[in-house]
Each structure stands twice: as structure tokens, then as C-alpha cells.
Design goal:
Blueprint (H helix, E strand, L loop, with lengths): L25 H5 L3 E8 L5 E10 L4 E10 L8 E10 L29 E7 L2 E8 L4 E8 L13 E6 L4 E6 L4 E9 L5 H12 L14 E2 L2 E2 L3 E12 L5 E3 L4 E2 L9 E2 L5 E3 L5 E7 L12 E6 L6 E2 L8 E6 L5 E6 L11 E6 L4 E5 L7 E8 L2 E8 L2 E8 L5 E5 L3 E7 L5 E8 L2 E9 L5 E3 L16 E6 L5 E7 L10 E7 L17 H6 L3 E6 L8 H5 L8 H16 L3 E11 L1 H12 L5 E5 L5 H7 L4 H6 L7 H9 L13 E6 L7 H13 L4 E6 L6
Parallel strand pairs: 35-36, 35-37, 37-38, 38-39, 39-40
Antiparallel strand pairs: 1-2, 2-3, 3-4, 5-6, 6-7, 7-8, 9-10, 10-13, 11-12, 13-14, 13-15, 16-18, 17-18, 18-19, 19-20, 21-22, 22-23, 23-24, 25-26, 26-27, 27-28, 29-30, 30-31, 31-32, 33-34, 34-36
Length: 699
């Protein structure tokens, strides 16, 4: 069953765009309702809580709302708004209109309009917690609300403070069996309490200079310079007291402070409780000299009382992810790559037995790479994985490794258990359907829609993705999607938007996007085509690996060959009105195309690469170029690879007008890559435009 065929008469969590234009434009896209952060499921699976955000262009305001919704009701009045926060979203709002979240030290009389909610977490079936961060004081407060009504007439109390941390906290989780609250917080090495970290933060702010000193890599990551602080897991016990209100029962404890090497957590949401709440499994990466050129991370097992954590998969493997306890707590399933220098290696499914400390590999001959794994029962696992433009959901038999798909269409995002049921709660979307929540039966994969955040985004203004297949380099099948403009007439001629994805180890999936949304181009009258050449994921590891030392080779050949086949098989595309657009690696390919092909009338390079050599010395994750170009540029043999595939070598051939977009806080491909591209174009008299963002990053 496709999303388009499913019922739309379902609860709407909030007002959608008031007067939606009958054309899908960038203005419409940025004003869509969207989820923010993770969705919380109540202990009995009867309700969910989620954060919804929306932006108003006219009002220049960002609204953040917290909702509770019943899972077993189709009545609209079973959706309850818990918090509603709105703020002027301009970079420099007038001082008179600046608004901050309520100070954590304010009185118990809470003004809910001053609470910007985040990280909802259920403390019980009738108590919901959420975090409010006060940017002025730097403190985080966990607030809670209680349900003082029956199933049919829910009435939620005003928020009350449960606990306050003197620093920002993230990844909040609560285990009702043990009464333990866990979260991550960045702390200075050697400190024993969060108060010590807050005190040192204040001391840092009193410095008369801003210098930062580094002795090892990496210095910065994505859009932030690395601080001396480590992100570590903290726990404390909560208890329910008067009027069913929760309060702390213990002090906050850093459960990995005494871990050898002081592991640095390398991902948010990277820890899980055992069902009994006595243990936590988490992913960590050890700070070391090779931090920037090795992906190695480990799954650690720790007691919530603060016993020293130990890795369950020591060795020289690659990145680990997605740990999950079995129901009885005796086993942990997780994903791990084998190659410690390759971020796009295939994820292997592994099960660790806590009792005998043995590890079993499941479905080792599977050619695809799962991105998430969990338990269905003692004999069956659950995985999500990318496969030919769809992110699928499947069950895996542990003994045989047999894969049984549950959902094979569109894109499954985050997956959450619904305890006590035989169903899951998932994020689900398509190119013509924004992300919403659905339940899915583990028996037959039946989908039931839960939310409809954007009911006015209807099929008459959004185009579905249709599959394409061409023959590319090495006679490989090149898969992709085509979107036609609304009211498409094959007898007319249309311009082409030829979109190239980043990564390069990623793919175009039939998913909704709030960034590179292909329907924006289709709605503007372009036939829009997005292809997955060599290097893309979802077509087997060999196809992904085929881009190594071939950046401007096989992928470029496949794209151009596919373009010619596209024009031959789709005569309504006007070959005199074609534009190519790409971001990140796609931006690299735009520069490469400009030096090797003049069939496009315009190009768009978003956060792309100009020089492979200069990029190596300015980027942060060195394992990426060292794998892609098979070495370091100061090695004579590898230097030839870098030089061979550098767009800078072919600047003299550039002729096509180009829009260059780059951002100051892009530390993956630094802003000089964009400035160099623009300089090379304009110095040669090639029409170009630079769009520069001083406060944005690689995304």
C-alpha cells in the first residue's frame, strides 16, 4: 500500500499552512510543519509525545510545540498541546522582541509560553517530562506534566520542575522499571560533577583572550571547533512523590568517568537501557592520535550505578552503531563495519552474549548494509536498510540469516518499539508525502497512519517519484528517479533539472526532504532527474566501492551516458534548456562537469570541492579522502590520484554559467573551495554568482 492511497481523515496535531498556494514553492516548503527530535512512546504504548516546529515567513517567527496524542483513538480531541513556544527567528531580532526560555531558577509559577520544549520523555503513563534549556544561565531543566483525567477526558497539569542540570543535556531517556533517568552532557576531563564543569565554563568566559590550543587532530568537526569537553552519560534516580510529582532520589552520576581512555561518545542517541534498567549499552570512540583518520568506535556495556564500562567488541574494527538489548538482557545486537578507515563500509550484524562473552555474526553474506537493528523476539531481528532508492524495513531470522521485508516502498525512517504490542511506530515518507508517523504490524507489515502534519500538501501540487534505469560505466545498471511537473503534457517541451547527490556514498531515496526537495524543481516546471552512479549506496557494496580512486571517472561516465539515454527515451526534454545541480560531492561533480562537458546551460555548485589536494589539508575526517584517493597527498603515488581527480586542473575549460553557494561554517569543505570556484569562473569571464552564508554549515 502506498502513502497516496492511505486515508487522510486523521488527527491533525496543529494548524497547517493557512492559505497554501497551489504551487509548491520554497516559501511553502520552509513553512511546512515538521517533527523535531525523537518521538516518545508511553510505557503502555497507549500514547506518544512529539515536538513539532513550523516557521512563518510573514511573522518571521519559529514556533515549537509539544503534543501528546493517543495511539488508540481516531478522535481529534485526543491530541493535546502541552507547550507552545514562539520566537523571532531573525538572526538579529530587535532587542525589544527578543525572547528566551524561562530561567531554570524561576519560581514554580510557570509561564508555558516561555518554555521551549525539547526531548520529551515519559516518566509514567500519566506523567510526561521535557527539557527546557536556558541560554542565559546555561542550565537545563527537566519539567513534567501530569494527566489528571481519564482516558476519555485527559486534563494535563501545568508544568513543574523535576530537576535542573547546570549545563546543557541531551539524549534524555527514562527507564520506568528502575526509575533511572539517563542523559548525555559534555564535561571536562577529570571533573567529577556537572557543577565543576559549569564552574569551569564560567571561568573560561572570564578570559581576556579567545585563543584555543590544539596538539592533535581533529581540531573541528562539521561546524564546531572541538572543545576540551567530552560527551558522557550521566544518570540519576527519580521517585514519584506528592500528587504523583517526580523528584530526584539520588545525585547525578557520570557512569563512564572511570572508563579507561575516557571514551568520547561519537553520536547522539547512541545509548540504550536494558529492559530492567540496570545496564546501559553505548557507542564511544577513544581519543587518540589517529582520531581523525580512523573510524573505530566500540560498543560499551556499563551498569547504571557507575561501574567502569568495558567494550564488548575490542579490536581494530571500524565504526559501531545501533546497540540494543534482548528482552532478557542476556544479549546485545549491534552493527559494525570491518574497515577502520572506511566510513562507507558494509555494516555487519553482530550479537554479543554477555554470559560467555562470545560474538555471532548474522546474515554475513547479505550484500546490503543495514542502518538500524533491533530485536523482534529471541530468534528474530528487525533492520532498516537502503535498497534501490527505498529505505526498507525487514525481519531477519537469526539462525538462517533469511531477510523477510515488511515494508518495501518509500522510506522508513526512525523505528520505535511499542511495548506490549506486536507493532512498531515509524517515521514514513515519500517524495510526494511529508514525513508522518505510522504504526506497522510485525505480522504482515500493515501500515496505519497516526499523524497528518501537512494535510494541505495534496497530490495535485506534488509529483510522485518514478523509477529510471540506464546503462552506465562497466555496463552497470544506473538507477534513479524522474519527477514530472504538475499538469504534465508529453507533447510539450520541458527544461531539465539534473540533480547529483552528495556523499558520495549515499543515494537518492523516495523520501521527503526539507533541503534538496526535488518537487521544488518539478513544481517550477522542470522535468527533474536524480540518478545514483557508482559510489551510491543501496546497490551492493561492490557498487558503493566502485568510486574509489574514480571520483571523476566511472560516476561521471555513468551520469553522462545516462543523460544521453534519457534524452533519447524522453523526447519532451528540451536538450537546449538543461541545468545540473549538486551539493558536496555533487558540487565536486558540477566542477568536474564544467571542465569536461558543455551540454548544460547552467550549473549549481552547493558546498562543493575545488581542489582535492587543498581539501585534504583543510577538512576534518581524514579517513574519507585517504580511502577515496588511496593514501595521503604527501605520498608520491597517492598524490597522483589526488591530482588526477582534482577539478582545479581543468579550470581553463570552464565555460558554463554557474551559481556557487558556500557557507562560512562549513568545515567539511571549507569556504575557500567555493571562493576558489567563483574566482576561477569570474577571472575567466564566465558568468557566475556567489551566494554566501556567514552563519551556515555544510548542510
Amino acid at each position: 500500500m502506498t502513502i497516496g492511497r492511505m486515508l487522510n481523515s486523521l488527527p491533525v496535531a496543529a494548524l497547517a499552512i493557512g492559505s497554501l498556494a497551489r504551487q509548491f514553492t520554497p516559501e511553502v516548503l520552509v513553512q511546512t510543519n515538521r517533527f523535531s527530535g525523537s518521538v516518545a512512546v508511553s510505557p503502555s504504548s497507549s500514547s506518544i509525545a512529539y515536538i513539532q516546529t513550523r516557521y512563518s515567513i510573514d511573522e518571521k517567527r519559529q514556533t515549537t510545540q509539544l503534543f501528546v496524542q493517543k495511539l488508540d483513538s481516531s478522535e481529534a480531541d485526543e491530541v493535546h498541546q502541552i507547550a507552545d513556544f514562539s520566537v523571532d527567528a531573525r538572526p538579529n531580532p530587535p532587542k525589544s522582541d527578543s525572547e528566551d526560555a524561562q530561567d531554570a531558577d524561576s519560581s514554580d509559577k510557570v509561564n508555558t509560553k516561555k518554555l521551549k520544549p525539547s526531548q520529551p520523555v515519559w516518566l509514567s503513563d500519566s506523567s510526561l517530562g521535557f527539557v527546557v534549556f536556558d541560554s542565559t544561565s546555561g542550565k537545563s531543566t527537566l519539567y513534567a506534566v501530569s494527566n489528571h483525567g481519564g482516558h476519555k477526558h485527559s486534563r494535563w497539569s501545568k508544568p513543574y520542575p523535576v530537576m535542573t542540570a547546570p549545563v546543557p543535556i541531551s539524549d534524555l531517556q527514562f527507564n520506568t522499571a528502575s526509575g533511572v533517568l539517563a542523559f548525555t552532557a559534555e564535561v571536562y576531563n577529570g571533573t567529577s560533577t556537572l557543577d565543576e564543569t559549569a564552574k569551569r565554563d564560567r571561568k573560561e568566559q572570564e578570559r581576556a583572550d579567545t585563543g584555543q590550543v590544539y596538539d592533535e587532530l581533529w581540531v573541528r568537526h562539521w561546524d564546531t571547533f572541538v572543545s576540551p569537553k567530552l560527551s558522557q552519560i550521566h544518570t540519576l534516580k527519580l521517585e514519584s512523590g506528592h500528587h504523583n510529582e517526580f523528584k530526584p532520589k539520588s545525585d547525578i552520576r557520570n557512569i563512564i568517568r572511570d572508563t579507561p581512555s575516557h571514551g568520547r561518545l561519537d553520536a547522539t542517541d547512541s545509548f540504550v537501557f536494558s529492559d530492567d534498567g540496570r545496564q546501559i549499552a553505548f557507542v564511544a570512540k577513544k581519543p587518540a592520535r589517529d582520531y581523525a583518520w580512523k573510524t573505530t568506535s566500540y560498543v560499551y556495556l556499563a551498569d547504571v550505578d557507575g561501574s567502569a564500562a568495558a567494550p564488548i567488541n575490542p579490536g581494530k574494527g571500524g565504526a559501531s552503531s545501533s546497540p540494543a538489548f534482548s528482552a532478557d538482557g542476556s544479549r546485545i545486537v549491534y552493527l559494525q563495519m570491518d574497515d577502520p578507515a572506511y566510513e562507507a563500509d558494509r555494516n555487519r550484524i553482530k550479537i554479543y552474549s554477555i554470559g560467555d562473552q562470545s560474538t555471532t555474526v548474522v546474515a554475513d553474506d547479505w550484500k546490503l548494509s543495514p542502518s538500524h537493528v533491533d530485536w523482534v523476539d529471541d530468534n528474530t531481528l528487525l533492520v532498516t536498510y537502503n535498497d534501490w532508492g527505498r529505505n526498507k524495513l525487514a525481519k531477519v531470522d537469526i539462525a538462517s540469516g533469511e531477510i523477510t521485508p515488511l515494508i518495501s516502498e518509500h522510506v522508513v525512517g526512525a523505528v520505535r518499539r511499542l511495548p506490549g504490542t506486536n507493532s512498531l511506530l515509524i517515521d514514513y515518507s515519500a517524495m510526494d508525502s511529508p514525513t508522518d508517523l505510522y504504526t506497522v504490524s510485525l505480522d504482515d507489515g500493515k501500515l496505519t497512519r497516526v499523524t497528518d502534519l501537512n494535510p494541505k500538501l495534496t497530490k495535485d501540487i506534488l509529483s510522485p517519484a518514478e523509477d529510471l534505469e540506464f546503462i552506465g560505466a562497466d555496463n552497470a545498471t544506473i538507477h534513479g528517479f524522474i519527477l514530472h511537473p504538475p499538469n504534465f503534457d508529453p507533447e510539450k517541451k520541458y527544461p531539465l533539472a539534473f540533480v547529483i547527490h552528495g556523499g558520495p556514498q549515499s543515494s537518492f531515496s523516495d523520501a521527503w526532504s526539507t533541503r534538496w526537495n526535488l518537487n521544488i524543481f518539478a513544481a517550477a516546471g522542470f522535468v527533474t532527474v536524480a540518478l545514483d552512479p557508482q559510489g551510491s549506496t543501496g546497490y551492493g557494496q561492490d557498487f558503493t566501492d566502485a568510486i574509489r580512486n574514480q571520483w571523476g571517472g566511472k560516476p561521471y561516465e555513468s551520469l553522462i551516458k545516462s543523460l544521453y539515454q534519457l534524452l533519447e527515451s524522453h523526447p519532451y526534454i528540451d536538450s537546449d534548456r538543461m541545468a545540473a545541480l549538486g551539493a558536496s560531492y555533487g558540487g565536486y561533480m558540477i566542477n568536474w562537469i564544467n571542465g569536461h562537458f558543455d551540454g548544460f546551460k547552467a550549473l549549481v555548485n552547493h558546498d562543493g570541492m575545488f581542489s582535492t589536494v587543498s581539501t585534504y589539508y583543510s577538512t576534518e575526517e581524514l579517513y574519507f579522502p585517504e580511502t577515496e584517493f588511496e593514501g595521503v597527498p604527501f605520498d608520491e603515488k597517492a598524490r597522483e590520484n589526488y591530482e588526477r581527480w582534482s577539478p582545479e586542473r581543468f579550470v581553463a575549460n570552464w565555460k558554463t554559467p554557474t551559481l556557487v553557494i558556500h557557507s562560512e561554517k562549513d568545515y567539511r569543505l571549507v569556504v575557500s573551495e567555493g571562493l576558489s570556484t567563483f574566482t576561477a569562473l569570474r577571472r575567466q569571464g564566465v558568468p557566475a554568482r556567489l551566494l554566501y552564508f556567514p552563519d551556515e554549515n555544510h548542510w
